[in-house]
UniProtKB/TrEMBL annotation:
InterPro entries (alphabetical): Bact_HTH_transcr_reg, Chorismate_lyase_/UTRA_dom_sf, Tscrpt_reg_HTH_GntR, UTRA, WH-like_DNA-bd_sf, WH_DNA-bd_sf
Annotated ranges, domain HTH gntR-type: 11-78
Name the UniProt record assigns to this protein: HTH-type transcriptional repressor PhnF
SMART domains xrefs: HTH_GNTR, UTRA
CDD domains membership: WHTH_GntR
Organism: Nocardia aurantia
GO biological process, one term: negative regulation of DNA-templated transcription
Stored Pfam families: GntR (PF00392), UTRA (PF07702)
UniProt keyword annotations, A-Z: DNA-binding, Transcription, Transcription regulation
Domain of life: Bacteria
UniProt gene name: phnF
Gene Ontology MF annotations: DNA binding; DNA-binding transcription factor activity
């Protein structure tokens, strides 16, 4: 097969795309955790430069098909699907057979900036509770969640809430109902700090989810900024007419 084979569309197929397709066929015959052939072996098999193989592997890494393990590369499990719904991260992870977890980064009272104040119905500078936590799936770091809550309404959480568990469950246990949410999803790159917390590089595409939630009375509950590794998670929504 020529490295720049002409496709049915009449356009030339980039060499990297052809190599990536060939590697994907190899991955289809392997199981999760199996080692991926080395760059040298793949370059020899496809008679291409190692840089071509390296680029194809980078694309497969971003796509979540493979992952780094030590000094090598292995086949990754499929991306975790997280629903765009009022369910919590915990519920979403459990529904796909994953074990959810969280690591607390910080839990502070901070003055609300203009966006947070508007989302929570407060005056700018009002004190709000801020929780920053790393989201885990089967022990792997896949997201960084930053949650802002009204201090005058949820300050009592400090007494007995375990921040490594579901915040939604704790709020619902207090008799509060999550009724509606507005979400915005976009692609971004992580800052050096965020990449360090998520144990990835700043070149890895991220999915950034903004959420404003209200209760059954229409009162604002939270403002959430969640950053997810684009190679480990995908989102899905059920649409009905």
């Amino acid at each position: 097969m020529d490295a720049m084979q002409v496709a049915d569309t009449g356009h030339r197929v980039p060499k990297t795309y052809r190599v990536r397709t060939e590697i994907e066929a190899i991955l289809g015959e392997l199981a999760e955790g199996d080692p991926v052939p080395s760059e040298r072996d793949l370059a020899a098999r496809f008679e291409v430069a190692r840089e071509t193989v390296r680029q194809a592997l980078r694309e497969l890494l971003v796509a979540g098909r493979i992952r780094r393990q030590g000094r090598g590369t292995v086949v990754s499990r499929p991306k975790m699907l997280q629903p765009l719904s009022l369910s919590s991260y915990t519920e979403g992870a459990l529904s796909h057979g994953r074990i959810p977890g969280r690591l607390l980064v910080s839990w502070d009272d901070v003055p609300a900036d203009a966006d947070t104040a508007a989302a929570l119905g407060l005056a700018p500078g009002s004190p709000v509770m801020h929780l920053e936590r790393i989201l885990l799936a089967d022990g792997e770091r896949i997201g960084l969640e930053s949650t802002f809550l009204r201090l005058d309404r949820f300050g009592g959480l400090r007494a007995d809430y375990d921040p490594t568990t579901s915040l939604y469950a704790a709020i619902q246990a207090a008799g509060v109902t999550f009724a509606a949410a507005t979400e915005r999803l976009e692609t971004v790159l992580a800052t050096p700090r965020e990449a360090a917390l998520l144990e990835c590089t700043t070149a890895l595409p991220m999915l950034l989810l903004h959420r404003h939630t209200t209760d059954s009375t229409g009162a604002p509950l939270e403002r959430v900024r969640s950053l997810y590794r684009g190679d480990r998670i995908a989102f899905e929504a059920v649409l009905r007419e």
